[in-house]
Specification:
The chain has about 775 residues and is of the alpha/beta class. It has a domain of about 350 residues: TIM Barrel, CATH 3.20.20. It is about 45% helix and about 10% strand. The strands form six sheets. It has an eight-stranded parallel sheet with strand order 1-12-11-10-9-8-6-2. Helix 8 packs parallel to helix 9. Keywords: Amino-acid biosynthesis, Metal-binding, Methionine biosynthesis, Methyltransferase, Repeat, Transferase, Zinc. This is 5-methyltetrahydropteroyltriglutamate--homocysteine methyltransferase.
């Protein structure tokens, strides 16, 4: 059996790409240093996979920022607003155009916004959304795919397997920027360019090409189904002699099984971790000669593979189609897992023995092949590890299980409905029209990060650290007062990541030192590992929030991360339903919310940016998920009195399909990302007549560009066309942790000025 890998983490085991990219963006290094760092990462990745015995080693899975953006550049799908980036500065070339599309561009007399970004299916990875026009033309623009194949060929001494986003999935990932056409109608313009790319790869010596088509595992309309049939028929006809693999993942093929199996390709990859039940149907319909790549090793989580379970699936497939038509593989790209468990030296050895990172998952693929060939020692070692986890006393706490079992519907209800709460809060707070606030965090400077590092190394005492954090917090408060923000935040200088911080203070979590996973671009996160029952042993945020409130007469907002987001942005235990784990977290957050209220905090934000992300990929499964996810949020928020205002924050979400459920969360204020979409996302709230208050983001924090006051006023006017002005807050899209202070200060000053202009405009109108 061939051993197949779909993709590998690309930021480097020690985040080398992040550091190289940020140095380049800051103008501290040149292109050659950036390209050298990228080459080193790719070569190291290929060597690791070759040493692990992987037969089909991927290339073009590497990206400087995002694989969808790579595809747009490869195909020449470049919005017209970016063309001056090359003409205005003779030093700019393809990589500068690429980063301009991802991050925006504000120099050389240009001020260009970044392209829209959204979540990659139900992961915490973000991609840059392609923009299509009715007369969209496609052509080979970037040569990166061919350059990377050549580098892989020279490094490995054999042809790597090129990875491309499939043509249908690429179109479905995009967005129509004009009325009067459907993006899927572009398939006949797009396929000839894919054919040119595949032919050119073959001429370079390519033997296998992987075309990622995860939309095959989603609900498809007839047009999309027809596009699949057309695209792959044309590709196969034009690319004889090239082995083509269609890769699906994150869900079962369900009713699309016959379609996927009918495509004229050499191999089909299916995800048997997320959807093991699909194998029987696939085997009953598989045509002669089609190779099946079985995704039996979890590419989305960090738990050790249960070899007995995987071997059962592999043996069933071998019995049906034969050994030579079965590949063993991870369920999806290993992009979503950390690099190497061997780098972790501080994890409890008992728990570490249950875990596997990307490098170890490659080894699991190899070991499954060796066990099939008769290596019983490897099977027995795996059985021992799996059994030890099932009975470990580290995992189970009866008092936590009993508290979750005792949850009632009343635990999810506020005292009074929103309309009554709003009047009470307006009377108590006396905020102006278009009140201003931020989403929580302020820039984490190098000084702040060094403080945290010194504390961890023992170079600072806790008292010295707290003194410095107190100074930073007070400085941030004074600046907010000076600029005129209405509801302040303490800045979160004592926090690392918005999930990691809470996980470190909750029981049932563990943390890694090098478990970095890419979220977008150079943004990496280190997800906590939920290994056992979750509870809150002590206050988590009360100390610093209370300190901040004591240093201002203005309202200070308490900042918490919601239960669904903590779940989604962690590596979650897989031995109980996710809903149960979420309710454990919800009760812990509820205790913190009540403690903040008792400490005198009247505005509390419970961030839930991942609630839309967690939505199942199939609509048939939505209702069950939304029921427990919304209830978990309500449980976390419902312990306070009417006067306490509960905010929530969501970003990069399509809300239309779930707007009723967002309303059911019963938050007093929701803040959302809307600046990149030019307030388009608000239309769902307006159509639904959303009952509560809304803060549509007027400032895109994922780009270094500084928006003008006039630009933000225009966005507020668009918002007020859709919503009652009296229900609109003014805020950035998201937290400001990743930004620099100079740009942050100017942008927030402009934002406050925009709110004042909006008050002038709308104070004369009925609210």
């Amino acid at each position: 059996m061939l051993k197949n890998n779909l993709g590998y983490p690309r930021v480097g085991a020690h985040r080398e790409l992040k550091k190289a990219s940020e140095q380049y963006w800051a103008g501290k290094t040149g292109k050659q240093e950036l390209f050298a760092a990228a080459r080193d990462i790719r070569r190291q990745n290929w060597q690791v996979q070759q040493e692990a015995g992987i037969d089909l080693i991927p290339c073009n899975d590497f990206s400087y920022y995002d694989q969808v953006l790579d595809t747009s550049l490869m195909l020449g799908v470049i919005p017209q607003r970016y063309t001056p980036v090359l003409s205005k500065n003779p030093d700019n070339n393809e990589i500068d155009l690429y980063f301009a599309m991802a991050r925006g561009y504000q120099k050389d007399g240009l001020d260009i916004t970044a392209m829209e970004m959204t979540k990659w299916f139900d992961t915490n990875y973000h991609y840059i959304v392609p923009e299509f026009t009715a007369n969209q033309q496609f052509k080979i623009f970037s040569e990166k795919v061919f350059e990377e194949f050549t580098l892989g060929l020279n490094t490995l001494g054999k042809a790597p397997k090129t990875v491309l986003i499939g043509p249908v999935t690429y179109l479905l990932l995009g967005k129509e920027k004009e009325q009067g056409f459907e993006k899927i109608d572009l398939i006949k313009n797009l396929v000839p360019v894919y054919i040119d790319i595949l032919k050119k790869l073959k001429s370079y010596g390519a033997e296998w090409v992987q075309l990622d088509e995860p939309f095959l595992a989603l609900d498809l309309n007839q047009k999309a189904k027809d596009a699949y049939t057309y695209a792959y028929k044309e590709i196969r006809k034009a690319c004889a002699g090239l082995n083509l693999m269609v890769a699906t993942y994150f869900e079962s093929l369900h009713e699309n099984t016959p379609l996927a199996l009918s495509l004229p390709v050499n191999a089909l990859h299916i995800d048997l971790v997320r959807a093991p039940q699909q194998l029987d149907k696939v085997l009953s319909l598989v045509p002669d000669n089609l190779i099946l790549s079985l995704g039996v090793v979890d590419g989305r989580n960090i738990w050790k593979n249960d070899y007995i379970r995987s071997l059962s699936l592999i043996k069933n497939a071998v019995a049906a189609v034969g050994t030579d038509r079965v590949m063993i593989a991870p369920s999806c790209s290993l992009l979503h897992t950390p690099f190497d468990l061997d780098l972790e030296t501080a994890i409890n050895p008992e728990i570490k023995n249950w875990m596997a990172f990307a490098k170890q998952k490659l080894n699991e693929v190899n070991e499954l092949s060796l066990i099939i060939d008769g290596n019983n020692d490897l099977l027995q070692a795996n059985l021992k590890a799996i059994s030890s986890r099932n009975v470990s006393k580290l995992i189970h706490r009866q008092e936590v299980k009993q508290r979750v079992a005792a949850i009632t519907n009343a635990d999810a209800d506020r005292v009074s409905p929103f309309a009554e709460r709003q009047k009470i809060q307006q009377q108590a707070f006396k905020l102006p029209l278009f009140p201003t606030t931020t989403i929580g965090s302020f820039p984490q400077t190098d000084d702040i990060r060094q403080l945290r590092a010194k504390l961890k190394k023992g170079e600072l005492t806790q008292e010295q650290y707290d003194t410095e954090i107190a100074h930073a917090t007070i400085d941030a408060i004074r600046w907010q007062e000076e600029v005129g923000l209405d509801v302040l935040v303490h800045g979160e200088f004592e926090r690392n990541d918005m999930v990691e911080y809470f996980g470190e203070l909750l029981d049932g979590f563990l943390f890694t030192k090098n478990g970095w996973v890419q979220s977008y671009g150079s943004r990496c996160v280190k997800p906590p590992v939920i290994y056992g029952d979750v509870s809150r042993p002590a206050d988590m945020t009360v100390k610093w929030t209370s300190f901040a409130q004591a240093n201002t007469d203005k309202l200070m907002k308490g900042m918490l991360t919601g239960p669904v987001t903590i779940l989604q942005w962690s590596f979650v235990r897989d031995d109980q339903p996710r809903s149960v784990t979420t309710n454990q977290i919800a009760l812990a957050i509820r205790d913190e919310v009540v403690a903040l209220e008792q400490a005198g905090i009247k505005v509390i934000q419970i961030d839930e940016p991942a609630i839309r992300e967690g939505l199942p990929l199939r609509k048939a499964d939505w209702a069950t998920y939304l029921d427990w996810a919304v209830k978990a949020f309500r449980i976390s928020a419902a312990g306070v009195q009417d006067e306490t205002q509960i905010h929530t924050h969501m970003c990069y979400s399509e809300f239309n399909d779930i707007i009723k459920h967002i309303a059911d969360m019963d938050a007093d204020v929701i803040t959302i990302e809307t600046s990149r979409s030019q307030m388009e996302l608000l239309e769902a709230f307006a159509d639904f007549k959303y009952p509560a208050e809304i803060g549509p983001g007027v400032y895109d924090i994922h780009s270094p560009r500084v928006p003008t006051t006039e630009e933000m006023v225009s966005l507020l006017e668009k918002a007020a066309d859709l919503l009652p002005a009296g229900n609109i807050w003014v805020n950035p899209d998201c937290g400001l942790k990743t930004r620099k202070w100079p740009e942050t200060k100017i942008a927030l000053q402009n934002m406050v000025a925009a709110a004042k202009v909006a008050r002038e405009i709308f104070s004369k109108e009925p609210v």
